[in-house]
Each structure stands twice: as C-alpha cells, then as structure tokens.
C-alpha cells in the first residue's frame, strides 16, 4: 500500500478515474434526475476527467513532477474541459486539492485530509445556492470523514473519506424529494464516490478498479406503521396558502388515493398532510391544487423482511448556524447544518425538516446561539412526537458548539456522547466584541452608538469608545482573553467576523504566545456580521 501520494500516484488516480467513469457512465446517466433530468451527468463527469487527464499527460515533465504541480495541471485541464454543472464542481474540487498541496512533493495522510477539506470548500463556493442531497453534500461528508480519522495512515484516511461519502450518498434521497420519487441517489454524488473509490484503488495498489463501497442505493425505505399493505408509499408535506374548506376537500381527495390520511392545521394557516398511496404524483398534485405544498417527503415502505425501522442510520449532529462561513466550518467538522442567511428569520419548520430528513434514529442538536434555542427546542419536540430521539445540547455561542462537536464520538453510547458534548459546551467560556448599534446604559457605564463593547460570558466587561479601528479591536480582544484565561484554560478559539481586521488572528497569536505560552490558539474566518470576533476558552 502507498504511504504517500506522489506525482505518479496522481497520474494513476486520474487514469483509473477515467477508466471507472467510462465503465459506469451509462449507469450514472440513468439516475440523473436533479437538478434537470437530462441524463448526462455521467457523460459530463467522464468528459471533464478525460480533459484533465489529457492535460496532465501533455504537460512538460517539470510541470507534473511533484504532487501539487500534477494536481494543478489536472485542475486547469478539468476547468478548461468542464462539461455541465457537475464538471465545473469537479474542477473546483481538483483546484482545492491543488491549492492545499501546492508546495507538497509527497502528500501524507494528514496532507490529504486537509486538502479534501479545501476541495469541499471550493466546490461549495462554485454553486450560488447549494442544496443538501447533492454532490456537494457527498464532498463535504468525504472531507469530514477524512478529518475524523486520526490514524495518520494514508490508506485508512482514504478509506474513511470514501466510506463517509458512501454513507452520505445513501441519504441523498431523503434530502431531495425528486430523488425519492425516482428511487435513486444523486448522480453527481455517485460520480464523486467513483473518484474516491478510484483513489482507494490507487492507494491500495490494485491493478484493476475496485468498488469497495456500494454505489447502487435503493430509495428511502420506511417501516409501515399502519394501513393496508396495498399501498407502497408514504407522502408527507406542509401546506399553506389555503383555507379550511379547501383542506377538507384535499382530505376527501387523498382518501380516494390511499389510506392513513391526515390533513391537520396549526390554527395559523399551516397544514400538515400525510397519506399512504401508490400514486405519489397524484397526492402531490392534489396539494398543488389546494395551496402551496412544500417540505415534500416521500418514502417507500419496506417490501422485504428484515428492515427493522424507517431509520437508515444511528446518529447525527445537527446545527442551525448564522452565516455561510460558520456553516461551512461546522460542515467540515461533520455536522449537518441549517444555514440561516443574514436577513433570514429562523424557521422551526426548516430545522424540523433537516432533523427528520437525516434518517437518523438519534439526533443531537447544537443551537450555537441563544436566539436559536427556542426553535431548536420546538423542532426537537415535534421530531420526538414523530418517533425520533432528539436531544438539544445548550450552546449559547458557535464556539461552544465547536467545543461540543470536537468531543462527539459516534462509537460511544448515545447517552454518554450527549453528556460529553454538554460538558464540553458548558466548560467553554465565551466572549465577543460587538459594535454598539445605539446609545445604551451598561452595568459598567454608558455607551454610544459606534462604541466597541467587549462581552465575557454574556456580560459587558469593556467599552472602547468610537470610532472603532484595528488597534481598539486588538486591544479589546486581548482584554477579553485576559478575563477568560484568568480562570484557566488550554485552548483559545477565535471566530473572525466579516469586519475583523486581517491582522487580528496574527496579533492575537503573538499576544498569547507572549503572555500565555502554554495556551493553544486556533482561528477561523467565520464571516459573521453581528460581531467583530467571537472567542472561546476551553
């Protein structure tokens, strides 16, 4: 087995990928139903990787003699020859690998894990409105799987990445209703898995492509909870823009299509619709004629014996997160994320849909924000009523959610894992710098709009009078760290906001190295708009 990836291994990976995509092209084309059922995803991926391989084979020796250089040529060739949306995403995946390994001659296990994270980030940035259940979901899971493997052994990290991608691919029909209706997994995600399986082949030094992880997945399967065995599907959706009278007519229509019909409202214009039927399209069309159906979920009932429940996996962690940067960070760490835009209002139904669509019997929710605790509790209560085991771990800040996620261990008993995450969150002190939006009186004195306020564990502990500049931000951040480290701590985490100066991370690291040499420091670009920086001390 290979211990490192060198330029020769990269060339073989590209060749095996082309060979395997060629063999599976028609199969991938057949399951291509999203975003457009044009049956060409396999062909597009094959064309893109062929262009990448040809560019690598034509490149001068000095431009392809090192790992990073070979990947750079591959990425440029893929971009120049990209076919379709899936081809563009793969080109960005290759670009991320190349950027991360630019100066690397031979890439080890840790190098590859970091490179896969960067590959997932750039691929996501290539899509204006990323959707769960696509090849981006599979790429993100692959990166998280590689990061979680701490063995330092190349073939184990590669296998972990492919295995995580396979598990994510199997769940794509539960995230996109069009896949569920067609009974297929995402075609682009399957293509990503082919690339990873090809890498497994190369790292294991096999002569022929191997498929160690299943790429043929059934549609989502649910246990039949009640009703006649003549109906094979469960259809559920939310409905609004209708009236009580129309909802009554919908109930009558659905009764002619199947059984276990329920159309119930919340008294405020929102209705939940449920039916067991065979004609999935008719059930959804009836909803369209009645109002506006959304959050549509379709599951096929178990036809064979031995399927114990409707849950496809044991445990997941779900996090609602404000801002793209923080959401991307949580995804990298393996969580399923409900991303809340800067101008969006938190929606309990969005979070509930994510929880139920995971297909997990046990879900841990990390709110990561005091303002999101309410919707997390409500979504959890509704999911529990539907048969899932959902626990909300109190987290008042993203830094506390990060601390909880860092100790998450799927191999532990669920109860023990929740306790460990709760202890990690509670043991993380939090601070932040915020620019005051209006004049106010704090318990340490008055502040004016535009002043810089320093908070430690929710209390104002410092005021830097405006106007705000880089030096005041650095001074305020150091003061917060001093306050929190006074009680001890080994790790300081900083989430840099959109308005944080570029030098803040370096300035904080220098300060900590000088004043607290035993403390570790890590910083991430969170990009949040509601504060300049968030700080955590563990």
TrEMBL record:
InterPro entries: DegV_domain_contain (IPR050270), DhaL_dom (IPR004007), DhaL_dom_sf (IPR036117), FakA-like_C (IPR033470), FakA-like_M (IPR048394), YloV-like (IPR019986)
Record flagged with keyword Transferase: yes
MF (Gene Ontology): kinase activity
UniProt keywords, alphabetically: Kinase, Transferase
Ranges for domain DhaL: 8-201
Pfam families reported for this sequence: Dak2 (PF02734), FakA-like_C (PF13684), FakA-like_M (PF21645)
Protein name (Swiss-Prot/TrEMBL): Dihydroxyacetone kinase
């Amino acid at each position: 087995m290979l211990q490192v990836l060198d330029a020769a291994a990269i060339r073989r990976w590209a060749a095996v990928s082309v060979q395997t995509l060629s063999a599976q092209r028609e199969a991938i084309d057949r399951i291509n139903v999203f975003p457009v059922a044009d049956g060409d995803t396999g062909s597009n991926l094959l064309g893109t990787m062929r262009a990448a391989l040809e560019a690598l084979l034509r490149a001068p020796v000095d431009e392809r003699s090192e790992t990073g250089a070979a990947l750079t040529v591959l990425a440029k060739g893929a971009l120049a020859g990209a076919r379709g949306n899936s081809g563009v995403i793969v080109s960005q995946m290759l670009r991320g690998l190349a950027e991360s390994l630019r100066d690397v001659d031979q890439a080890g296990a840790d190098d590859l894990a970091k490179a896969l994270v960067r590959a997932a980030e750039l691929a996501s940035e290539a899509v204006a409105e990323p959707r769960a259940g696509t090849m981006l979901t599979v790429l993100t899971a692959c990166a998280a799987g590689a990061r979680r493997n701490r063995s330092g052994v190349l073939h184990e990290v590669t296998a972990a990445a492919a295995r995580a991608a396979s598990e994510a691919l199997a769940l794509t029909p539960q995230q996109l209703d069009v896949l569920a209706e067609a009974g297929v997994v995402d075609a682009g995600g399957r293509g990503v898995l082919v690339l990873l399986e090809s890498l497994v082949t190369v790292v294991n030094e096999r002569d022929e492509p191997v498929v160690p992880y299943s790429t043929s997945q059934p549609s989502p399967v649910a246990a039949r909870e009640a009703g006649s065995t003549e109906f094979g599907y469960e259809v559920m959706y939310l409905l609004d823009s209708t009236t009580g009278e129309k909802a009554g007519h919908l109930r009558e229509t659905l009764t002619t299509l199947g059984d276990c019909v329920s159309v119930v409202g919340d008294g405020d214009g929102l209705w939940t619709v449920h039916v067991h039927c065979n004609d999935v399209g008719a059930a959804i069309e009836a909803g369209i004629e009645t109002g506006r159906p959304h959050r549509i979920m379709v599951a096929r009932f178990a036809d064979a014996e031995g399927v114990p429940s409707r849950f496809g996996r044991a445990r997941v962690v779900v996090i609602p997160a404000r801002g793209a940067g923080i959401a991307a960070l949580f995804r990298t760490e393996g969580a399923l994320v409900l991303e809340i835009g800067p101008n969006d209002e938190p929606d309990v139904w969005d979070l509930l849909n994510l929880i139920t669509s995971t297909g997990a019997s046990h879900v841990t929710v990390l709110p990561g924000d005091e303002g999101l605790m309410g919707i997390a509790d409500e979504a959890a209560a509704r999911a529990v009523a539907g048969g899932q085991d959902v626990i909300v771990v109190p987290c008042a800040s993203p830094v506390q959610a990060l601390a909880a996620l860092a100790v998450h261990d799927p191999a532990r008993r669920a109860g023990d894992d929740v306790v460990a995450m709760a202890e990690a969150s509670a043991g993380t002190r939090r601070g932040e710098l915020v620019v005051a939006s209006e004049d106010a009186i704090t318990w340490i004195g008055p502040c004016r709009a535009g002043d810089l306020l320093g908070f430690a564990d929710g209390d104002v502990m410092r005021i830097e009078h405006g106007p705000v500049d880089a030096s005041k931000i650095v001074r305020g951040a150091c003061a917060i760290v001093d306050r929190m480290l006074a009680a001890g701590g080994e790790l300081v985490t900083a989430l840099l906001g959109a308005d944080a100066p570029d030098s803040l991370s370096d300035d904080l690291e220098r300060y900590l190295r000088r004043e607290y040499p035993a403390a570790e420091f890590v910083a991430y670009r969170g990009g949040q708009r509601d504060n300049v920086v968030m700080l955590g001390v563990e």
